[in-house]
Amino acid sequence: MIDFLSSHVLSIILLSPVVGAVLVLLLPANRLRTIRWTAFLVSLVPLAFSILAWRAYAPGVEGYQFVEKAEWYAAIGSSYHLGVDGISLSMVLLTTLLTPLALLISWSIEERVRGYMALFLLLETGMLGVFLSLDLLMFFVFWEVGLVPMYFLINQWGSANRNYASFKFLIYTMAGSLGLLLAIQLIGLASGTFDLVEITQKWTALNEPLTVLGLPLAVPIGTVKAVAFWAFVLAFAIKVPVWPFHTWLPDAHTEAPTAGSMILAGVLLNLGAYGFLRFVLPLYPEQAQAYAWILGLLAVLAIVLGAFSSWAQDDFKRLVAYSSVNHMGFVVLGVAAAAQARGTLATPDAVIAVNGAVLQMFNHGLSAAGMFLLVGVIYERTHTRDLNAYGGLFPLAPVYGGILLFTAMASLGLPGLNGFVSEFMVVRGAWPIFTLYTAVGMIGLLITGAYILKGLGKVLHGPMNEKWVGHKLEIGRREILAMAPLMVLMLVIGVWPSWILGVINATVMRLFG
Amino acid sequence: MQPELLTWLIPLPPILAFGLIVLWAYRSNRLSHTLAVGAMVISWGMAMAVFALALARPHLGENPIASSVAWLPTGETALRLGVLVDPLTAVTLFFVAWTCLAIFVYSIGYHNFGKPRDPNDRPGLPPHAGGIEPMYARFFAFISLFAFGMLTLVVSDNLLLLFIGWEIMGLCSYLLIGFWYGKESARKAMVKAFMTTRVGDVFMLLGLAALYTSTGTLNYREILFNEEVLTTLAEASSGVLGLSMAGLISLLIFLGVVGKSAQFPLHVWLPDAMEGPTPVSAMIHAATMVSAGVYLSVRFFPLLTAGWHEGSPLTLPMTIVAGIGGFTALFAATIAVAQNDIKRVLAYSTISQLGYMVAAVGIGAYVAAAFHLITHAFFKALLFLGSGSVIHGMEHGVHATHGHIDAQDMLNMGGLRKSMPITFVTFVIGGLALSGFPIVTAGFWSKDEILAEAFGTGQLIIFGLLAVAALLTAFYTMRQITLTFLGAPRTPAASHAHESVPTMTLPLIVLAIFAVSVGWVGIPEGFLGLHLPIPNWLHEFVGGTLLEHPQALPFQWIPLLTSVAVAGLGLLVGWWVYRRIPAGGADPLVGWLGPIHTLLRRKYFVDEFYEKVFVRPAYWLADQVSYRWIDRGLIDGFLHGVARTALRIGSFLRRWIDLPVVNGFGDLVGETTKRAGRVFRQVQTGQVQGYLVVGLLFTGLLLSYFLLVRP
Amino acid sequence: MIPLSWYLALSAAVFCLGVYGVLGRRNAVAILMGIELMLNAVNINLVAFWRYLTPTFIAGQAFAIIIFAVAASEAAVGLALIISIYRNRSTVAAEDIDLMKW
């Protein structure tokens, strides 16, 4: 039993939510309490196992760990291959942490609870699969698996404009996925396998022209790689989202139910960034280096214009949604800097930049999820998201105010909390590589202050708001319980980041050889 | 206990107090302030112990109290954070601990502890009628957090930890300026303070990144106490404006200082920050946080002056720093002359004095800058607390007389020396220190040293700016004292004012003692040509922080006489002009200066200028360009265009291909079959006999075929 | 002995009577009776061929007996149907029973 558990820990993490989803669907539809509790308790299983995995993970050991490999689709060289390194393990930890919290916050969902909870658990498997897969075909399957439940969560449980938002989300992401599928097929054909580990070894050295099915049409490998590179970049750039591809995000985030926004901001965006780190950088070093300046430019635009757009919002949730564009810009900036620096003297800087980028993914997961949770809390009580309708809520909801202040400061990047550490590392890493970009990005950092303060000021500050006197605005115990782990982590990472950075750093250093 | 461990522990009690108050003790006001003050006392005790240990340590500059831990793994190496007590830290720690403690105690009385809560008071607004502050516990939580930030900053051994403390203080400043967030002005001020300082902070962050990139460390000792690193930085070109790497980095960091220490052009937030409760103004906006900016510039003096030697002309970065400092000193002093709000005068005077220190750093007067930093912290904290006491007394008077006058307007005061004797005496001591009243006050010694350095190093422009500023300083200080305390009460409220409670006056007395005595540690050797028995202890001690100990300048008469003359003249004129302002009378300066007075009173219209040139365009950019035009118009417009085009192509295909061709063909097959069926179904009569006849006929035919045709 | 052809002639005559009955009569009962006649004409053929051509085999008799059985059951079912139709539609005329018309 122990042997089985310890040798299949990733499979358990990956598949237990699906089992849970089936379990939830088998329950009678009107037993809401049972359904909620079952879903919540089931989602603790992957969390427990990922904590175990985190503790058992040895940062110093080369290669992937907890590897599981089984035959799946032998005819085309694809297998069920799971494994983690420092980067994916931290993402797995984040995913398994956020899902129970999101489920906890979803207890206010009253309609079709069973379907909701089942979709959510399915979503978790999709996301985990992306992080855990070491096989391109499996990666793609899970990539798509994550998409569908999210579409339904927005479309069925979202707010007023949900049809538009969910449709935009789905179409946009699908557009990226198509190229991804094509690129994965090209890689598979050219290297004869879908296994990431094997591809990583073969692929960069591959120089044979690609012949398709013995046809006389030989495609030069450079073309194959360039096509595949851009297809990957597009798919991931949409998901992150990098600047001009970002407009699906505010709509989707704003219309999604609270828990959906939490997961969307906390994990789904990281899928794109993870894709850059896992596939684009190792598989296409030359192409990435050649086009890093474009990526860096777009990242800076995301930082600056994301912050500006956020500042312009009067809808609290939309403001927070735009802040994701701003924050993920730093991740992409780190990635771009690393791509640019590969093989040059600036490699140590690149390591710092990527460390910062990965930590920023984690931190953004915490703070954005927290912010969306808090927006959800106030929305549930006031039924409005209009910032101008709030004001002076601090005396009415002091605990809520304190928590909002804390989380907003983490999001703003206040030193001593998590966001600062990663932003500082990205800035430090990117500075010698993209000096101008980094300097321009500072405008974004400045405006970050403006929009966070705008949000705080319009919600909390002002004379005691007579309009809401008598409403019960204070945050509930269940919601505090959901916020507490996030806040603890924000503080812990801000004060003592090396417990997580040590793991990330070891992997990133191997990435840069 | 080891001094290293003790140093680590200094910032901890306030943060623990903060956590305890926020999570647990906030329901009890007494418990909250006991925790906060108790924690501050412990920190103060440890700070004094460390200070004493530091004094006792021989060659503290070369052999500081230092300890660090690996904090951030970065590839093969790790960024280390730690604590450091060298001479500069030690003296900073001394004044920070004292002023913080005094202000903590003062806050108890200021927020009317012991009085019942007025049921009309609302959280977020100042108490109306002397009731206890509704958010009393929260105030103590915030100032505890602030004290943690400041102490962390001071004991830090590197720029990153300093930046952490720096920003935590920024947050506290934001929260405390907006403590009475029910007031519109406070809300505006809190955002303004945070955003203005953040402008400096983002540059500083770049400076950090650049410094870290160039040297691989952020530790003070490894950068600033390291000849090799400094030389490398001074010789490396940055590629920007012909500056060396050292110059660029120190200017970037200096921009952080400009924001935090409210130097021109980022000075606008500090006067508005007076919206906060007075202890906040005293602690954050006079004694500690704004001083932290100057502390940083003093700390990075070696980097700023890398490649410069005493006696040689100033380098470009130094000129910029000195110029900004000198200009700010004069600029703010002129504005202070025309302010009537007792706290705003002090706010502008703070900006002006900080300008002095920055100018001192810029001209290479390291010790003088540090000296003025210390003395200023004491006498400015004293002045702010004194003004708080005055306002308190006035508010009592306003309440007692049911008047509706501004309790902070000096023209409404007058004659308070009788009703508030302790406040009066201590305020005068502070005011004289600020004016640089010769010999007895601390301010004289430090200010004189800056002037002497400016003169002695040949920086006559700076010397001139500072001297005029000193004249104005003495003038507006005396104006303030005269309007507030001397003469007869100009309003009924002023005649009903009363002395504050002991928790408020005791800190005033303590600070007043320091405002006088601190100057004695830095009396220059050879003062007035005498060989005094007391050596210039401060110069020796603080100078030890630098790798190359600065030389004390020989005594000169001109700066001394200038200093004495401007102080005396300013005080005299200030008293003479304002000695007899009648009730409801206007400031005589309004008539004398005319439109210039308006210009000064409106602070040279800098706020309006910024609002028009930066804030509004930035918001326009955010709202109209970034969001509406780019996101909504361009990108979403493009997407919607694509979607519409796809729809149009779809409907085209449907109308011209699907409907006529594909559907047409299908329908044709169906229709034809149907028509044929309609024809053929006629045979289906349902008459069994009919069918049988047909069957018979065909059988007959088959039979005939087999029998006749193919027999 | 009577030659085989006579039997065949008789059989043909009876068959033709039966055909006429089936095709020509309106009454459904009469049609059934026509069918019986046709079956019996076949029986005559079977028995005659057996007796004249293969007297050692009894296949012809066996077939005839089977046809009796078929005829009897057919008559039973047919009459039952006709009675049922009559009850529903009060007629047994064949041209009125055209439920299968298009």
Question: Overview of this structure, please?
Answer:
- The complex is a heterotrimer of chains A (513), B (711) and C (102).
- Chain A is mainly alpha-helical.
- Chain A has 19 helices and four strands.
- The two termini of chain A are 38 Å apart.
- Chain B has 29 helices and two strands.
- In chain B, a hairpin with a 2-residue loop joins strand 1 (65-74) and strand 2.
- In chain B, helix 4 (87-110) runs antiparallel to helix 12 (278-287) and helix 19 packs antiparallel against helix 21 (460-485).
- The N and C termini of chain B lie far apart (134 Å).
- Helices cover 76% and strands 0% of the residues of chain C.
- Chain C contains three helices and no strands.
Topology summary:
The complex is a heterotrimer of chains A (513), B (711) and C (102).
Chain A: H1 2-7, H2 9-26, H3 32-56, E1 65-73, E2 78-84, H4 86-105, H5 113-132, H6 136-157, H7 162-191, H8 196-203, E3 210-211, E4 218-219, H9 221-239, H10 248-255, H11 258-283, H12 285-311, H13 316-341, H14 347-382, H15 398-412, H16 418-430, H17 435-459, H18 477-495, H19 498-511
Antiparallel strand pairs in A: 1-2, 3-4
Chain B: H1 3-9, H2 12-23, H3 29-56, E1 65-74, E2 77-85, H4 87-110, H5 136-155, H6 159-177, H7 184-215, H8 220-224, H9 227-235, H10 245-260, H11 269-272, H12 278-287, H13 289-299, H14 301-304, H15 316-337, H16 342-362, H17 366-400, H18 416-419, H19 421-435, H20 442-456, H21 460-485, H22 492-496, H23 502-517, H24 537-543, H25 557-578, H26 588-593, H27 595-601, H28 606-680, H29 688-709
Antiparallel strand pairs in B: 1-2
Helix pairs in contact in B: 1-3, 2-3, 2-5, 3-4, 3-5, 4-5, 4-12, 4-17, 4-23, 5-6, 6-7, 6-12, 7-10, 10-13, 12-17, 13-16, 13-17, 15-16, 15-21, 16-17, 16-21, 17-19, 17-20, 17-23, 17-24, 19-21, 19-23, 20-21, 20-25, 21-25
Chain C: H1 4-24, H2 28-53, H3 59-89
Helix pairs in contact in C: 1-2, 2-3
